[in-house]
Amino acid sequence: MTSSPIQKAAQVTPDGVARKIRGLSDRTIAWIFVAPTIFLLLAVNIFPLIWTIRLSFTNFRVNRPNNAVEWVGLRNYERILNDPDIWNTMQATAHFLLWTIALQVIIGFFLAFLINKKFKGNDMWTTIIVFPMMLSPAVVGNFWTFLYQPQIGLFNYVIAFFTGVDPASFSMIGDVHLAPWAIIIADTWMWTPFVMLICLAGLRSIPDSIYEAAECDRASKWRQFWTITIPMALPFLMLAVLFRGIENFKMFDLVVQLTGGGPGNTTTLTSIDLKREAFEKWRTGYSSAYAVILFVTVFGLASIYVKALNKVKER
Amino acid sequence: MSFSVTEPTKGTKWFAGFLVITYAIITLVPLLWIIATGFKSPTDSIAYPPVVVFEPTLEGYVNLFTDRTRATDDMLEAEGPPQTWYDEIVRERGTIISGPSRYGERFLNSVIIGFGSTFLCMVLGTAAAYAFSRFRVPLKDDLLFFILSTRMMPPIAVAIPIFLMFRNLGLNDTHLGMILLYTAVNLSLSVWLLKGFIDEIPMEYEEAALIDGYTRFQAFYKVVLPQAATGIASTAIFCLIFAWNEYAFAVLLTSGTAQTAPPFIPNIIGVNGKDWPAVAAGATIFLVPVMVFTVLLRKHLLRGITFGAVRK
Predict the structure, then answer these.
(1) What ipTM describes this predicted complex?
(2) Euclidean distance between the first and the last CA atom of chain B, given in angstroms as a whole number
(3) Which tens digit of pLDDT belongs to each residue from A198-255?
(4) Rounded CA separation A191/A101 (Å)
(5) Could you tell me the pLDDT band of residue A263, with boundaries at 50, 70 and 90?
(6) I need a surface site. Which of A1, A171, B21, B244 has the fewest CB within 10 A?
(7) Any domain includes A269
């Protein structure tokens, strides 16, 4: 490669000459290349967002286009923040977020730790473990309702087999106390591989030489784990938590297919509630304000978290 | 093999392998159950205790692709003997095929919208990524952050105005509308990933080509694109999988002509309540291609799902 005439030419021609040879100016080409992307993102992402903010100050309803649209100021926001149902929804979301993240981080990290022992065939098994997260959450979530059927469902059968309870005696998606766990189990099944992959990248980024040095200092394996492995993998773990947090705050497809928000409102996560307000009750103005509140919450929490993440990285 | 203190012992490896394989098998069970249920008869699918060994039948697949009506004995006789193997399966249940189901259409919609949006996304994304990688674009960092942040929005939150906008433009429930929408949603991921791939191609190649008399476009087209081919391909598969799996926008913005498979599959209803073998058959056909792509993609998986934040 090094002797190709093209490269030789590249080495001897000074930068200034090279710049003159080009046809269209770089700036023009840059704009031609970037403009369509920016335009599409503005049209489909930013413009709707601004529209949502505008609608949130009105009493507009999509299903009654002939009604006069009135500016109601902050009344929508006021009503949302004083609505006890919203707080129940937030609580259900927080419960879901907390447990899915905790379970996924623990199982995911443990799996990554084991896979990093580089046993034979670990690549193949890693790929198999990754399958659930690549599949359509709606289609898979719908099938989980079949696994959760009392009596005939495989999940109930397995639980009954190991605990001895009657498989027809409990319904994971019909019971008020079990339904929140039904969605946590399905989500954990689906997304643990994601956390595992990130943790694996973290573990593989730790150079062997650190462990070799620790071994020379006669540090025990246990001590090596807590003083080398965990601190060095921490930024990756935190990254996994960030991604899972944002994704699960938006959670819609898997849960809506699994429980549809029921029984009662026990699994009504914010996205499901928002969908009901916007596309079933058609309270467009109200739900726009709701959307803005959610959006600000995610952005606020995420940016605080990213600051913390950067601090950990700097250490 | 040379001795290394960091190399795990044989026993550790064996134990770790055992635990990981156990987890992998448990995690596979629901997926295998979907595939198996697709080949069960309706009775076997809801048997208690759940059956693992059963006589496979294609009834689920036949039910998935056909609409059937109940037929009286007279009607069955009037139809004459069954013409095909699938006719035979349907006749056994005392029904006759009244026409093809909508699954084929929905699946085709998924293919059109998936590939259409992926193609458009790659064309726009590669160009933008090249510009961000090679040129001094004003406000580059701000633009890049803006592009990334669009991915953080809950789909439902922007669905209301998109719904209104599409209705005004006549794009509701059309292929073009869904292709544009998925392209926009995927562009952020694509630009970030592709910029990473293009950054890794040494600038010298293009400069040499430019000196040889290539224009910028030619250099981009003939030098950079071939080198970025692997990166473009893996990014494209990510976009394809996203568009393929997407549910929220599909269920809110499509109902008839442009509906994709994910909102359709859960609603397959049989003669007596939910027809689980047909649902499972529909899911199998829909999910298996993604599993194949996952195997192809395994080396690039991490970069894709983390916006390029983690590189192996």
Answers:
(1) 0.87
(2) 25
(3) 999 899 888 888 888 888 888 888 898 999 999 999 988 998 998 899 889 889 999 9
(4) 9
(5) confident
(6) A1
(7) yes
Find the CATH number of the domain harbouring A189.
1.10.3720.10
pLDDT at residue A29 is higher than 60: yes
A-chain residues near B106 (CB < 8 A): none
Q: Is A40 on the interface with B (CB under 8 A)?
A: yes
CA angle A269, A174, A241 (to 5 degrees): 35
What is the Cα–Cα distance from A89 to B117, expressed in whole angstroms? Answer: 34
Residue of A nearest to B131 (CA): A30
- Residue from A39, A128, A242 to probe the interface with B (highest B Cβ count within 10 Å): A128
By C-alpha distance, the chain A residue nearest B154 is A250
A159 close to B (CB below 8 A): no
pLDDT tens per residue across span A182-203: 999 999 999 999 999 999 989 9
Tell me if B60 sits within 8 A of A154, measured CB to CB.
Answer: no
Domain that holds residue A18: 5-55
Residues A89 and A47 in one domain: no
Nearest CA in chain B to A25: B216
Taking an 8 Å cut-off on Cβ atoms, the answer to whether B306 and A239 are in contact is yes
Contact in structure between B233 and B300 (CB atoms under 8 Å) = no
